Protein backbone atom coordinates (compact mmCIF):
# COMPACT_ATOMS: atom_id res chain seq x y z
CA UNK A 1 0.00 0.00 0.00
CA UNK A 2 1.36 3.40 -1.03
CA UNK A 3 0.45 6.28 1.29
CA UNK A 4 0.84 9.99 0.65
CA UNK A 5 1.64 11.75 3.94
CA UNK A 6 1.23 15.49 4.50
CA UNK A 7 2.48 17.56 7.44
CA UNK A 8 1.77 21.26 8.07
CA UNK A 9 1.36 21.64 11.84
CA UNK A 10 3.98 24.34 12.37
CA UNK A 11 6.63 25.87 10.10
CA UNK A 12 7.42 22.98 7.76
CA UNK A 13 5.35 22.04 4.72
CA UNK A 14 6.13 18.38 4.09
CA UNK A 15 4.95 15.57 1.85
CA UNK A 16 6.17 11.99 1.63
CA UNK A 17 5.38 8.78 -0.17
CA UNK A 18 5.76 5.69 2.01
CA UNK A 19 5.21 2.10 0.96
CA UNK A 20 3.70 -0.43 3.40
CA UNK A 21 4.28 1.88 6.35
CA UNK A 22 8.04 1.45 6.42
CA UNK A 23 9.70 2.11 3.06
CA UNK A 24 10.27 5.80 2.36
CA UNK A 25 10.04 6.36 -1.42
CA UNK A 26 10.37 10.13 -1.01
CA UNK A 27 10.28 12.72 1.74
CA UNK A 28 10.21 16.43 0.93
CA UNK A 29 10.37 19.15 3.60
CA UNK A 30 10.02 22.85 2.74
CA UNK A 31 11.16 24.81 5.76
CA UNK A 32 9.97 28.33 6.53
CA UNK A 33 12.82 28.99 8.97
CA UNK A 34 14.28 31.79 6.82
CA UNK A 35 11.02 33.74 7.03
CA UNK A 36 10.38 33.27 10.78
CA UNK A 37 14.06 33.76 11.62
CA UNK A 38 13.84 37.54 11.75
CA UNK A 39 10.96 37.39 14.27
CA UNK A 40 12.82 34.96 16.57
CA UNK A 41 9.93 32.47 16.43
CA UNK A 42 7.08 31.16 14.30
CA UNK A 43 4.48 33.76 13.25
CA UNK A 44 1.26 31.71 12.81
CA UNK A 45 -0.36 33.90 10.16
CA UNK A 46 2.78 33.88 8.03
CA UNK A 47 3.09 30.12 8.50
CA UNK A 48 -0.44 29.50 7.15
CA UNK A 49 0.16 31.66 4.09
CA UNK A 50 3.43 29.96 3.32
CA UNK A 51 1.86 26.50 3.66
CA UNK A 52 -0.70 27.55 1.04
CA UNK A 53 2.08 28.59 -1.34
CA UNK A 54 4.16 25.47 -0.73
CA UNK A 55 1.67 22.63 -0.48
CA UNK A 56 1.09 21.86 -4.18
CA UNK A 57 4.76 22.07 -5.28
CA UNK A 58 5.85 20.01 -2.27
CA UNK A 59 3.31 17.23 -2.99
CA UNK A 60 4.28 17.30 -6.71
CA UNK A 61 7.94 16.97 -5.79
CA UNK A 62 7.24 14.05 -3.43
CA UNK A 63 5.35 12.19 -6.15
CA UNK A 64 8.10 12.86 -8.71
CA UNK A 65 10.93 11.85 -6.38
CA UNK A 66 9.14 8.61 -5.51
CA UNK A 67 8.96 7.87 -9.25
CA UNK A 68 5.28 6.93 -9.01
CA UNK A 69 2.12 8.19 -10.70
CA UNK A 70 -0.65 9.90 -8.78
CA UNK A 71 -2.83 6.86 -9.61
CA UNK A 72 -0.46 4.62 -7.62
CA UNK A 73 -1.41 6.29 -4.32
CA UNK A 74 -3.65 3.98 -2.25
CA UNK A 75 -4.29 6.17 0.79
CA UNK A 76 -3.74 9.65 2.20
CA UNK A 77 -2.71 10.78 5.69
CA UNK A 78 -2.32 14.28 7.09
CA UNK A 79 -1.56 15.78 10.48
CA UNK A 80 -4.80 16.56 12.30
CA UNK A 81 -3.19 18.06 15.43
CA UNK A 82 -1.80 19.25 17.76
CA UNK A 83 -0.38 22.36 16.12
CA UNK A 84 -1.27 25.81 14.81
CA UNK A 85 -4.89 25.70 13.60
CA UNK A 86 -4.37 27.82 10.49
CA UNK A 87 -1.29 25.85 9.50
CA UNK A 88 -2.92 22.47 10.15
CA UNK A 89 -5.98 23.39 8.10
CA UNK A 90 -3.90 23.88 4.95
CA UNK A 91 -2.40 20.37 4.89
CA UNK A 92 -5.48 18.67 6.33
CA UNK A 93 -7.93 20.24 3.85
CA UNK A 94 -5.58 19.64 0.92
CA UNK A 95 -5.26 15.98 1.91
CA UNK A 96 -9.00 15.59 2.54
CA UNK A 97 -9.83 17.04 -0.89
CA UNK A 98 -7.18 14.93 -2.59
CA UNK A 99 -8.55 11.77 -0.95
CA UNK A 100 -12.16 12.69 -1.71
CA UNK A 101 -11.44 13.50 -5.37
CA UNK A 102 -9.66 10.19 -5.88
CA UNK A 103 -11.97 8.19 -3.57
CA UNK A 104 -9.09 7.12 -1.32
CA UNK A 105 -9.08 6.31 2.41
CA UNK A 106 -7.97 9.28 4.51
CA UNK A 107 -6.43 9.21 8.00
CA UNK A 108 -6.07 12.25 10.30
CA UNK A 109 -2.88 11.65 12.24
CA UNK A 110 -1.85 12.77 15.73
CA UNK A 111 1.46 14.59 15.25
CA UNK A 112 2.94 13.25 18.52
CA UNK A 113 2.13 9.64 17.71
CA UNK A 114 3.70 10.24 14.31
CA UNK A 115 6.95 11.39 15.93
CA UNK A 116 7.03 8.02 17.76
CA UNK A 117 6.46 6.33 14.37
CA UNK A 118 9.67 7.93 13.07
CA UNK A 119 11.36 5.25 15.21
CA UNK A 120 9.58 2.54 13.19
CA UNK A 121 11.00 3.92 9.94
CA UNK A 122 14.50 2.84 10.97
CA UNK A 123 16.03 -0.52 10.08
CA UNK A 124 16.88 -1.02 13.73
CA UNK A 125 13.48 -0.42 15.36
CA UNK A 126 12.84 -0.63 19.11
CA UNK A 127 10.83 -3.70 20.12
CA UNK A 128 7.82 -3.27 22.42
CA UNK A 129 7.57 -2.27 25.18
CA UNK A 130 9.69 0.87 25.24
CA UNK A 131 9.76 4.34 26.74
CA UNK A 132 9.40 7.12 24.17
CA UNK A 133 10.24 10.78 24.53
CA UNK A 134 8.73 13.22 22.04
CA UNK A 135 10.77 16.34 22.53
CA UNK A 136 10.26 19.31 20.26
CA UNK A 137 9.49 23.03 20.20
CA UNK A 138 5.97 22.37 21.47
CA UNK A 139 6.16 19.19 23.54
CA UNK A 140 8.19 17.21 26.02
CA UNK A 141 6.12 14.06 26.52
CA UNK A 142 7.17 10.69 27.95
CA UNK A 143 5.15 7.64 26.87
CA UNK A 144 5.11 3.97 27.68
CA UNK A 145 4.64 2.37 24.26
CA UNK A 146 3.35 -1.20 24.33
CA UNK A 147 2.10 -1.65 20.75
CA UNK A 148 1.65 0.27 17.50
CA UNK A 149 -1.48 1.84 19.01
CA UNK A 150 -0.81 2.03 22.71
CA UNK A 151 0.91 5.16 23.96
CA UNK A 152 0.43 5.70 27.69
CA UNK A 153 1.37 9.28 28.59
CA UNK A 154 3.56 9.14 31.71
CA UNK A 155 4.57 12.79 31.91
CA UNK A 156 4.75 16.08 30.08
CA UNK A 157 6.06 19.58 30.55
CA UNK A 158 4.18 21.87 32.92
CA UNK A 159 5.50 25.01 31.24
CA UNK A 160 8.02 25.33 28.38
CA UNK A 161 8.90 22.47 26.06
CA UNK A 162 12.61 21.58 25.96
CA UNK A 163 12.97 22.87 22.38
CA UNK A 164 11.19 26.07 23.36
CA UNK A 165 13.72 26.55 26.18
CA UNK A 166 16.55 26.10 23.63
CA UNK A 167 14.89 28.69 21.36
CA UNK A 168 14.28 31.18 24.19
CA UNK A 169 17.82 30.90 25.58
CA UNK A 170 19.22 31.39 22.06
CA UNK A 171 17.06 34.50 21.74
CA UNK A 172 18.38 35.82 25.09
CA UNK A 173 21.92 35.22 23.87
CA UNK A 174 21.09 36.86 20.55
CA UNK A 175 22.48 33.95 18.55
CA UNK A 176 19.57 33.20 16.20
CA UNK A 177 16.59 30.92 15.58
CA UNK A 178 15.92 28.00 15.90
CA UNK A 179 18.07 27.84 19.02
CA UNK A 180 18.65 24.09 19.35
CA UNK A 181 21.17 23.46 16.56
CA UNK A 182 22.94 26.80 17.19
CA UNK A 183 23.34 26.10 20.91
CA UNK A 184 24.53 22.56 20.22
CA UNK A 185 27.25 23.79 17.85
CA UNK A 186 28.33 26.66 20.10
CA UNK A 187 28.45 24.37 23.15
CA UNK A 188 30.94 21.96 21.60
CA UNK A 189 34.06 23.89 22.65
CA UNK A 190 33.16 24.39 26.31
CA UNK A 191 33.13 22.47 29.58
CA UNK A 192 29.43 21.76 30.24
CA UNK A 193 29.97 21.66 34.01
CA UNK A 194 31.47 25.16 34.31
CA UNK A 195 28.15 26.77 35.32
CA UNK A 196 25.65 24.86 37.46
CA UNK A 197 22.19 25.78 36.21
CA UNK A 198 19.32 24.25 38.24
CA UNK A 199 17.84 20.86 37.39
CA UNK A 200 14.09 20.89 38.06
CA UNK A 201 13.02 17.34 38.82
CA UNK A 202 9.65 18.12 40.50
CA UNK A 203 8.10 15.63 42.97
CA UNK A 204 9.71 12.25 43.52
CA UNK A 205 8.34 9.75 41.03
CA UNK A 206 6.95 12.40 38.69
CA UNK A 207 7.70 12.12 34.99
CA UNK A 208 6.60 15.70 34.33
CA UNK A 209 9.05 18.39 33.32
CA UNK A 210 9.53 22.08 34.02
CA UNK A 211 12.06 24.12 32.09
CA UNK A 212 11.02 27.63 33.10
CA UNK A 213 13.35 27.59 36.16
CA UNK A 214 16.41 26.73 34.06
CA UNK A 215 15.43 29.39 31.55
CA UNK A 216 14.99 32.12 34.22
CA UNK A 217 18.25 31.15 35.85
CA UNK A 218 20.04 31.52 32.48
CA UNK A 219 18.38 34.92 31.97
CA UNK A 220 19.58 36.10 35.41
CA UNK A 221 23.09 34.80 34.74
CA UNK A 222 23.29 36.59 31.37
CA UNK A 223 22.13 39.81 33.02
CA UNK A 224 24.23 39.62 36.20
CA UNK A 225 27.46 38.58 34.47
CA UNK A 226 26.85 40.84 31.48
CA UNK A 227 27.44 38.06 28.95
CA UNK A 228 28.39 39.61 25.60
CA UNK A 229 31.31 37.85 23.89
CA UNK A 230 30.96 34.77 21.71
CA UNK A 231 33.18 32.87 24.11
CA UNK A 232 31.01 33.70 27.12
CA UNK A 233 27.86 32.85 25.17
CA UNK A 234 29.32 29.47 24.21
CA UNK A 235 29.92 28.71 27.90
CA UNK A 236 26.34 29.58 28.83
CA UNK A 237 25.10 27.47 25.89
CA UNK A 238 27.15 24.44 26.99
CA UNK A 239 26.02 24.57 30.62
CA UNK A 240 22.37 25.26 29.73
CA UNK A 241 22.35 22.35 27.29
CA UNK A 242 23.91 20.10 29.94
CA UNK A 243 21.18 20.99 32.46
CA UNK A 244 18.42 20.14 29.95
CA UNK A 245 20.11 16.90 28.87
CA UNK A 246 20.62 15.91 32.50
CA UNK A 247 16.92 16.34 33.35
CA UNK A 248 15.69 14.60 30.18
CA UNK A 249 18.08 11.68 30.71
CA UNK A 250 17.27 11.21 34.40
CA UNK A 251 13.51 11.20 33.78
CA UNK A 252 13.80 8.81 30.85
CA UNK A 253 15.93 6.32 32.74
CA UNK A 254 13.63 6.57 35.78
CA UNK A 255 10.62 5.92 33.53
CA UNK A 256 12.33 2.93 31.91
CA UNK A 257 13.19 1.46 35.30
CA UNK A 258 9.70 2.17 36.64
CA UNK A 259 8.11 0.35 33.69
CA UNK A 260 10.86 -2.29 33.56
CA UNK A 261 11.72 -1.38 29.95
CA UNK A 262 15.11 -2.09 28.45
CA UNK A 263 14.60 0.33 25.55
CA UNK A 264 14.20 4.09 25.21
CA UNK A 265 13.30 5.81 21.93
CA UNK A 266 13.63 9.53 21.44
CA UNK A 267 11.99 11.56 18.67
CA UNK A 268 11.15 15.16 17.76
CA UNK A 269 13.36 18.13 16.88
CA UNK A 270 15.49 18.07 20.04
CA UNK A 271 16.36 14.39 19.49
CA UNK A 272 18.54 15.64 16.60
CA UNK A 273 20.93 16.87 19.32
CA UNK A 274 23.81 14.40 19.10
CA UNK A 275 25.26 15.50 22.45
CA UNK A 276 21.94 14.45 24.00
CA UNK A 277 21.90 11.14 22.12
CA UNK A 278 25.47 10.31 23.21
CA UNK A 279 25.07 11.31 26.85
CA UNK A 280 21.71 9.56 27.23
CA UNK A 281 23.03 6.41 25.52
CA UNK A 282 26.04 6.30 27.86
CA UNK A 283 23.96 6.71 31.01
CA UNK A 284 21.33 4.24 29.81
CA UNK A 285 23.97 1.66 28.88
CA UNK A 286 25.22 1.61 32.47
CA UNK A 287 21.68 0.49 33.42
CA UNK A 288 21.54 -2.04 30.58
CA UNK A 289 19.05 0.10 28.61
CA UNK A 290 19.41 0.69 24.86
CA UNK A 291 18.63 4.03 23.24
CA UNK A 292 17.06 4.42 19.79
CA UNK A 293 17.06 7.72 17.91
CA UNK A 294 15.97 8.41 14.33
CA UNK A 295 18.36 9.77 11.69
CA UNK A 296 18.46 13.59 11.82
CA UNK A 297 16.16 14.02 8.80
CA UNK A 298 13.40 12.14 10.63
CA UNK A 299 13.84 13.94 13.99
CA UNK A 300 12.24 17.23 13.01
CA UNK A 301 8.84 17.58 11.40
CA UNK A 302 8.48 15.47 8.26
CA UNK A 303 5.70 13.71 6.40
CA UNK A 304 7.23 10.23 6.25
CA UNK A 305 6.28 9.74 9.91
CA UNK A 306 2.75 10.96 9.13
CA UNK A 307 2.42 8.45 6.27
CA UNK A 308 3.79 5.66 8.50
CA UNK A 309 1.22 6.36 11.24
CA UNK A 310 -1.50 6.89 8.62
CA UNK A 311 -0.74 3.48 7.12
CA UNK A 312 -1.62 1.63 10.35
CA UNK A 313 -4.74 3.76 10.81
CA UNK A 314 -5.92 3.07 7.26
CA UNK A 315 -5.26 -0.66 7.74
CA UNK A 316 -7.39 -0.61 10.89
CA UNK A 317 -10.15 1.41 9.22
CA UNK A 318 -9.55 4.32 11.58
CA UNK A 319 -10.46 6.94 9.00
CA UNK A 320 -11.52 10.58 8.94
CA UNK A 321 -14.84 11.64 7.47
CA UNK A 322 -15.23 14.79 5.39
CA UNK A 323 -16.66 16.74 8.34
CA UNK A 324 -13.74 15.94 10.68
CA UNK A 325 -11.73 18.93 11.80
CA UNK A 326 -8.21 19.68 13.02
CA UNK A 327 -7.35 20.25 16.73
CA UNK A 328 -4.78 22.54 18.31
CA UNK A 329 -4.13 20.69 21.57
CA UNK A 330 -4.12 17.04 22.55
CA UNK A 331 -7.12 16.14 24.66
CA UNK A 332 -5.37 14.57 27.67
O1 LIG B 1 9.88 18.57 15.95
P1 LIG B 1 10.23 19.95 15.52
O2 LIG B 1 10.91 20.12 14.19
O3 LIG B 1 8.96 20.87 15.49
C1 LIG B 1 8.00 20.87 16.48
O4 LIG B 1 7.06 20.03 16.40
O5 LIG B 1 8.17 21.69 17.41
O6 LIG B 1 11.14 20.60 16.67
C2 LIG B 1 11.67 21.89 16.59
C3 LIG B 1 12.45 22.16 17.87
C4 LIG B 1 12.96 23.60 17.97
O7 LIG B 1 12.65 24.10 19.26
C5 LIG B 1 14.47 23.45 17.79
O8 LIG B 1 15.23 24.43 18.48
C6 LIG B 1 14.72 22.08 18.35
O9 LIG B 1 13.61 21.32 17.94
N1 LIG B 1 15.97 21.48 17.84
C7 LIG B 1 17.02 21.19 18.63
C8 LIG B 1 18.04 20.72 17.76
N2 LIG B 1 17.57 20.73 16.48
C9 LIG B 1 16.28 21.20 16.56
N3 LIG B 1 17.18 21.30 19.96
C10 LIG B 1 18.39 20.95 20.45
N4 LIG B 1 19.42 20.52 19.69
C11 LIG B 1 19.30 20.39 18.35
N5 LIG B 1 20.31 19.96 17.60
ZN1 LIG C 1 6.95 17.97 15.65
Briefly summarize what is shown:
Its main location: cytoplasm. The chain is an alpha/beta fold.
Structure, described:
The chain is 43% helix and 19% strand. Helix 5 runs parallel beside helix 7 and helix 5 runs antiparallel to helix 8 (230-258). Helix 3 links the parallel strand 4 and strand 5. It is built from 11 helices and 10 strands. A 5-stranded mixed sheet has the order 3-2-1-4-5, with helices on both faces. A 5-stranded mixed sheet has the order 8-7-6-9-10, with helices on both faces. Bound molecules: 5'-O-[(R)-(carboxyoxy)(hydroxy)phosphoryl]adenosine (KG4) and zinc ion.
Helix percent reads 40-55%
First-to-last CA distance: 32 Å
CATH class of the largest domain: Alpha Beta
Task: Write out the strand line-up for the largest beta sheet, numbering strands in chain order.
Answer: 3-2-1-4-5
CATH superfamily of the largest domain: ATPase, nucleotide binding domain
Query: What small-molecule ligands were found?
Result: 5'-O-[(R)-(carboxyoxy)(hydroxy)phosphoryl]adenosine, zinc ion
Radius of gyration: 20 Å
* Class inferred from helices and paired strands: alpha/beta
Mean pLDDT: 96
Largest sheet: number of strands, sense, barrel closure? 5 strands, mixed
Extended strand count: 10
Helices, by number, come to: 11
Following the backbone from N to C, one meets helices and strands in this order, namely EEEHHEHEHEEEHHHHEHEHH
Q: What is the general shape?
A: globular
- Provide the domain count: 2
Family: Belongs to the KAE1 / TsaD family.
Binding site for Fe cation: 111, 115, 301
Domain Gcp-like: 23-307
GO molecular function, one term: iron ion binding
Amino acid sequence: MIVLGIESSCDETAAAIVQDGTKILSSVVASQIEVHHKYGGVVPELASRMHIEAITPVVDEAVQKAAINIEDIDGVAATRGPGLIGALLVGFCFAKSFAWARQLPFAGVNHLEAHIYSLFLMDNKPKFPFIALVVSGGHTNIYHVTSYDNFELLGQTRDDAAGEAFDKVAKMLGIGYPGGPIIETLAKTKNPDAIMFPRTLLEKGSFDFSFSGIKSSVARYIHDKNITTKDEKAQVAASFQEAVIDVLSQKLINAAQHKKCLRIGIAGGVSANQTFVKKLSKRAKSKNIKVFSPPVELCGDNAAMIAARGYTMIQQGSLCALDHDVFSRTKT
